[in-house]
Structures are given as structure tokens and as C-alpha cells.
Amino acid sequence: MKLLFRKNNPWLLMACALSAGYSANAQAPADTTAWPAYRKDVMAAVFNKINKSHFAPRQLDDAYAADVWKRYIATLDPNRCIFLQEDIKRLSAFQSTIDDEIKISGTGFFDAAFAIYTQRAHEVQVLCEETLARPFDFKVKETVQAERKNAPYPAGKAEQAELWRKLLKFYTLRNYMEMQDSAAKGKPDPALEVKAREKVGKWYADFFRQNVRSQAVNDKFFQYIADATLEVDPHTMYTAPQVLTLNDMLNKRYFGLGIELGVKEADFFVKRMLPGGSAYRSGEVKENDLILAISDHQGQMKEVAGVPPTEVAAMIRGEKGTPVKLRLKQPGAQPRNVTVTREEIIDKENRAKSAVIERDGKRFGYIWLPVFYTDDTPTKQNGACNDVVREVEKLKQEEVEGIVMDLRGNGGGALDEVVRMGYCFVPEGPMSWLRGKDKVDRYNSPATPPLYEGPLTVLVDEGSASASEIFAAAMQDRRRALVIGTSSTFGKGTAQTNVNLGKMGDPAKGTADVSYGSMRLTVQKFYRVTGESTQLKGVRPDIVLQDRMSRESVMEKDYPSAMACDTMKLLPFTRETFTFDYNKVVENARKRVTKESAFTAVATGTQQLEQLNSGLVALDLPSFYQRYTQMARLEQNIKDTKEGAGADTLRVSLPVDRSVHPSLLKPDNSPTTIDFLHKTAKDIYLAETVKIMEDMVDNKISK
To answer: Domain named PDZ: which ranges (predicted)?
Structure first.
């Protein structure tokens, strides 16, 4: 296997949430009496494959059983408001037996949990309808714990009813604040309260419709298997079989907007936009936009919070040239409606880009690489490595004094591209080691002189994973570059392969193929050239600018089922010699970072947001308004600070390809390029990296 797969596929439109539910697209036998046997077959196929092919399959013991139990209960009831304490007590009998069930393909825990869940869901559905039929009194001073992942379950139905009354009031107040300008002033408005309450009612009507229909038993079972595999390790992931229409849409050409969806709790937001996509080019869709509603294929606006991710993706996709309306909301702003045309998603823009940065009379090169992509065409000339080579050549022509490789948010990609890219910066030598069950392979950079030998930095964050960590670690271990960024990278030191599950039919006997779904299975681990693994602990930068750059980020160490970090004894390798005073440059940077008010402001604002999110929420209108506006203000301040609002910006321009005759050069004034230069100029983390590179140039030493 020559590929290290990313934890996400950013341009598949939908970010893959580890606990995302399955939709009705999942296949099951048409005969409902065959469902129990089919589910046993699915379980057997999944765990047979894990036991046979996983790099280090987790032992199925009582500890594993307890972890699966905990995860699945949390999946069914993440806010601890559907199950009662008596339900949890009844289900706790399975905490130490799930492992035994899995070994014999038993479904006792699932059957019991689903039966109780269905009963409670029906009861809560009635409770919600009755509660939402009456207006809420926003004058009453009371509080609720809205973030309840660690809260106690309701002791009984009376306590549950009171909890739901408060939660529904909370959601109504939140919608009330988002709906009109008058609400932003915290003024009582009975008509607006009705609209906000109706919106909550529609959301829960969809939620319960999804969870009590006949297909729900299969949806919940497939999620149970997914949860069970995620407790083997966070990157061994089960995917239910899909009907052909969705499968075709996912694996062939499709038409959409070019956005990556992020999922947090029940809400969807625009995590990232494909620069060449219609959403990006419209100028109306922004990163971090909360997606409140999307028009369905009949043109009706439908609230999407809590809707399965596959259905949200299906709503966005459609026929080429057709419009889709979205209701979006930026933090601290009012909701807005935008209309964007669906187009074919072809990623031509999400490739390596470079710029020249000028500061204090010095010129530095900047290369942005969002993913280690490959070129599947016969020429294979347009993969990440060759694109970076072209950008390095242009920056050399510009006579830059140093280069920044920006791998922030780069979730990985092809190992071959990382290894070949070593040619840009280091002589022949090891870039990484890959260990499977039966052998260990060394991956060397090409046996050619380095393309560029000047000062080099690698900028990373907690989203830099897998292949990005291989590159950063190799540059750090071989003393070729300073690594700069968050306290560590993601920490994914494992490699996966995709496998299909099922059995072949026999046309002669009239039996069809049977699909049990597919898996992404962990089959290898990779190691730094020192023999250490990046697994779990990631790559720690030489200079840390911030603990994390995103409040929403999740890292390998956040997953309890993450595999352990280990080491191997490997062959010695040759290190480069820094051309600058390493200790002085690092010490100067650490002193600046400590005093940098922008970094402190981001950290403080993030901490305050976490405290507001985790605390009790007052449910009277004046207090709720105060909290709502405070959170919006904090989010906007963090955003402005990260973009260097009010601060001096860097001078940024595109490099000129001097291999092309000047008469043939055309200025690139595309919105994608303008936005790239604008963001680069205002990036506070890049600004500090440029200061570090200035120090590297000013504190040269002889080799």
C-alpha cells in the first residue's frame, strides 16, 4: 500500500463526522423478517475483517464492551434528555457483555437499546408537541444546562418533562434572536416568539419522523456497527451499504456548490469552500456560515439542523445549472438568504499556490498546500509534488531569502507525493518508514541535489495530519527547517485502506450479490526517521504560536480509542546543518509570542466562549440577549484578530514565472487569486513566521 489516507475528504462536499447518523439510503433486505439474520451477517463480516486484516486489532474484552456501550448510548442520546435513569440502569447490564455478543454476532444490546429508545422517542415526541403548543414566557427567570453531554439523565418523567420544557425554550430563544433585527435588541415580540417556536417544532417533527419510522431500526443498527468499529481505533470506520442513486452520486460526477460541510452537534456550517466552486465565486457564501435551511427539490425551504448529513448533501446537489437557496448566518450577524447555482465540482483551484512576501526590505516565498493530492492521468504531471516544484522554481527566480511551506489544515493525502517532494528541500535520505503486519518499508527522498537550499519553515496547526505530519517531521528531524504552529499537529500516525464487505451471488442459481457495506481499515503505522511515531502526540513545533487555532478542532488525542504511540529502532541517517543560530532564533520568537497581544486575545476569547457554552443559560429575554450578544461579540473579535484587523499587513504579490516571455504573461485578477493574496496579507500567524525567517537570515552562521 502506497497511500496514507486523510481523515477527511474535503471536496466530497461533506465532512465525515465520526458520529454521523445513517439515513434511509442504507440497504437492507426487502423482507423485514430477514433483517435480524442480515444484521448478524453484517456484524460477522465486519469483525472477521478486523481480526484478519487490522494492524493491531483491539482485544474484545470487558473494557472494549464498556467503551462501545458508552459511545452508542451517547450516539442515541447525546444531550442526555431522551433516556431516563431507569433506562440506563437496565441497559447497564450489557456493559460487560457486548464483547461476548460480538464474538457470536449477537445483537442483544442493540435490540434492548433500540426498543427502549423507540419507546422514549415516542413519549418525548408527544411531550414536545404539547410543550410547543403553548407560548413561552420570556419574563420568567430560570436557567438550563444546554450543553448536557456530561449531565445526569432525568430521574423520572416529571423531571424529563421539565428539562424538555426548558430546552425547547432555549432553542426557541436562540431562533428568536436569529430571526429579525428587533430580536437583537432584546425586545419582547409575541409574533416573533410564535415564529421561533414553530421553527423549533418543525425541526423536532423532522427529527422524530426520522427516528420512529420503520427504517430507523436499520439506520440505528448500522450506526451501532460504526460505533463498535470506532472503538477499535478512530480511523477504522464502517459505512453502511448505499442505494445505487446515492452511490452513483458519491462516486461519479456530480453537481453542487463546492463546499465542505462541518457538523457540530445538530448544526451544519460551511467549514471550507472550494475556490473554483460556485459558492466561492458567488461572494455571498462565507466560511463559518451556519446553514439554517436549504431549499428542497420542490423549492421549499427546509430546516437542516439535525437532518442526516447524507440528506443535507443530497439537498445541495442537483441538476447542473439549477439554483439552490440557502439561509445562512455568520456569528454575530443576522440570517440572510442567498441563491447559488449548482455546477460540476471539478477541483482546479485547490492546488499549491505561492506568493512573494515583502517586509522590512526582505523578500520571502510562501507556498500554500491544502492537501497532498495526486494526478491520476497517464502523464501524472500535476500532482502535489510537481506543482510545488513549479512554485519553488518561480520563487527562486524571485530571489527570495527564505520559503514558508504552509500545511495548516492539510489533512494528508498520498505518501508518494510527500516522499518525492523531499527533492525540493533535502538530499537523498529517509522521509518516513511504514510498518505493516509483516514488513517495514523505508521511503527515501529522490537521489538528486535539492532544488532549494535556503532558509525554510513549515507552518502547521492541529489540523495538519497524516502525510503533512510526515513532511513536517522529516524536515524537523533532518534539521532542514523550523516547524512553527500549534502545540502539536493532529497526531495521526496510521494508514488505512478501503475494503468492501459482502458475498458474491451465483447467476446460475439465481442468487444476487449481497453487500454488507464497506470499511476504512487501519492496516499500517508510519514512523519518523528517528523511529518515533507521530501517532497520538503528533509533531511538536520548534516554535509554538498558539495551543489550537480553532475552537472546533478535534485531534487524535481527543479520541479515547486512539492507538498508542511507540518507537522502532531504525538505521542512522544524516542530518543537515542549520545555517542560522537555532537557539537564538527560537528564543527570540518565543519572547515575541509571549508578548504578542493578538495571540493572547485569541486564546482569551476562545476560553471565554468555552465558559459561556458550558455554563448555565438564563432563559429570561434580557439575560439571554446579553449572553447571545456577548458570544457573538467574542466570535467576531476572534475572527477580526486572526485576520489582523487594524494591524499592519504584509506586502504580498504573485511570483512571476520568468521562464515565460513577458509578452505572454497575463495578470491574474481572478477572485480566487485576489482572495488568496488578501488572506495571506492579513494572516497574523504568517506574519510572525515571516519575522522568524527574518531572524534566520539575520543570524546566519557558517556550516
So the answer is: 243-317
